[in-house]
Structures are given as C-alpha cells and as structure tokens.
Amino acid sequence: MIAASFRDCQAWKAEGLPLSTTSNEACKMYDAIITQYVQWRNDPTLGGIEGCIAAVQAADPDFVMGHVINTGLELVGTASSVERNERLASAVRRTVELAKTQEITPRERQHVRAMELFSRGALSKACNVWEEILVEHPTDMLALKFAHDGFFYLGYQTQMRDSVARVLPYYKPHTPLSSYLKGLYSFGLLETHFYEQAEKVAKEGLALAPNDAWCVHSVAHVHEMKAEVDKGLNFMQSTEKDWEGCDMLACHNYWHWALYHIEKGEYEAALKIYDSQVSRRCVSTGAMLDTVDACSLLYRLEMEGVSVKDRYREMLQVVEPHSEDHTLLFNDLHFLMVSLGGGATDCTHRLLDSLRERAREMYSTCCSCMLPSNLRTNTIRSMPGPYWWSGMPYGRTLPLLTA
Ligand SMILES: [Fe+2]
C-alpha cells in the first residue's frame, strides 16, 4: 500500500466523515490503520498498525479519533482489560478527557462513548452506539468493524448479519474498502445458517480481493458446517498463498484447516499445522485469537486420543500471564483447557478463584459484563467440561466452580 493514497482531511470531509484534526498526515495514517484492521494484515511498508498509530500520535497528539482507534483496537484484541492494565485504563481516561475539551463532531463523540462503554465491559451498549453512528453514517467503516467484532463476541449472530446488510446499499464500487463488505456480510450469513448465500457472497468478495482473509474464513466455516471436509482442504490449500500474509487472521484460518484433518482422522497432519503455523504464530504474536486457537486445537487432539502433554506445557507459558484477565469467558475456557492439560494446578486455581471473584462483582454490578447474563451463566457452567475431561468426576466439579 502507498501511504500517499490514503484519505486526507478534505477527502474524509468529502465523504461526510469529517475528522477533527488539521493534520493531513494524521488523517492518512488513521485511514491506513482502518485499512489494515479490515484486511487483517500489518503492512510492513507502512510500519504495521503499530507504526501507523505512532505516526498518528506524532502528527497530532490530541487527535481524538486517533486515540479512539488505538484504544479500541487494544480492547478488541481482548488480551488486556482496564481492570488489569493501568496503561490501558489511562488511555481510555485520556481519550474521554480530550473529547470533553475539544470541539469535535457528534459522530466522533459517539465513538468516544462507545469505546468507553466497551472498556467497562458494556459491549452490548457499545454496539448500540456504533449502530447509531451507522444510521447517520453508513460508510463509517470503523463503526461497522467494531460493531461486527462486538456482535461476534456477544454471539449476536442476527445483528452481525443485519448490521452489514443495512449499510451495503450505501457503498459504491469506488467507496474505499467496499469489497471487504462481502466478507463481513458473508460471515453474518453463515452464522445465521444461510450457507449457500454465504459462500456465494464470499466468493464474490474473493474475486474482487483474493487476499480477503475474512472471506476465506467464511468459506472455511461453510465447508465445516456442511461437513465438506475434502472441499475445505482443497480450498485452503489452493488459496493459502493469498491469505498466509494476513498475520492477524492466518493462524485462525490454519486452525480451520487443521480441523478438517482431525475430522478425517489425519492427526499427524493436524499436528504438523499446529507446530508449523498455529503454535509458532501464537508464540510470536501473543495475540489472543491465536492463543485460543492453539489451546482449542490441543484440546481437540487430546479428545481424539493424541498425546499433546508437552505441547500443553509449552502453551502454558503463553496462557499463564492471562489467567486473571477475564476479558472474555470464551478465553477463560480455553485457558482452563491448557492449565488442566498441562497439569498446572496453581494456574488452574488462580484462574478459577479470580473468575469466581469477578463473577460476584459482575452479578453485584449487574451490567458491567461483556456477556449477557444467560450466556455468562452457561459459560461458567461449561467450565466443568474440561475438568471432567481431565479426570475429575463431573459431580465434584460444579461445586468447585460455584463455591
Ligand atoms: Fe472461525
């Protein structure tokens, strides 16, 4: 990508999405961050997302939307929370303070509010605010992507699909990043069981942008749901060169590839993908999506009777520092798989004790959880699954978790 091709102050204004900064460089780098977020790819020629965030801050340290996108992306990554990370908590406070002292647009103010709600775990409310932005500004890609990821974490499948469907008519072929809407829409379609339609839309997206890793991911899910294992294997193999460079999603796509092998009983092939891609990427990035994929793949292989004890112990090094984060219960469940699999009793107790404590806080404050209460309860109830699998009688696990 060429830095000069990104939108400057005037170009953003012309699209009805004015940004409150006089720095063209800040506007362009903000655009470059959104582009890489949508494409799931850190572009080394731009310095990756991190390099662009630094460039935005250097160009205009008080640019509110620069702070919003920086903090919002860290929250979306779910590897950190304001409760456990003072730097992140302080970044949220600084963004809110900056917004209070500046003349910014109502849209930017809504973005600040959504980010602040997200930081407090009120993700459902944050999604409502992003959706409100999209009513007035359907081509605000940042609001669309944050809402998409938010609905995904919440398990709000219909909302994820319809959020994209509502804005589709407003995107023209020349609108920046318009082809990537296909992948977003396709994923919503497959999550609501419209498999044929999902595959068709994803393939349309791939015809426009073969490196759209989210479209690839959507097709991978379709083949998984339809039990088309060989088709899935062929598809991943034939497209690998297009998406392997999408460093933020490639690991997850390899995880899907490994699942096909597990379903065929080809455990060595699945282990090869685990070692050469999933584990390697997880250890080098520390990204939470890569981490849960590695945990899950080991657990699935173990359930098939494959010995993965040593690999569990390696993964423990990655998981252990996050055992008290409790950013998403989905993550916690994966950490538990590895702490039990690796025989790390201390880590298991720390994870569950702090989770119980957090659950008490959630129930007492009622709305501060990222998950609705029924899902919250069900996920906590699912915790005994890995416990039982690790050898503890099921009847002894629930009291342990609900004590
Ligand atoms: Fe997936």
TrEMBL record:
Gene3D superfamilies: Tetratricopeptide repeat domain. It comes from the Eukaryota. Keywords: Repeat, TPR repeat. InterPro entries: TPR-like_helical_dom_sf (IPR011990), TTC38 (IPR033891). PANTHER family: TETRATRICOPEPTIDE REPEAT PROTEIN 38. Belongs to the TTC38 family. This is Tetratricopeptide repeat protein 38. It comes from Alosa alosa.
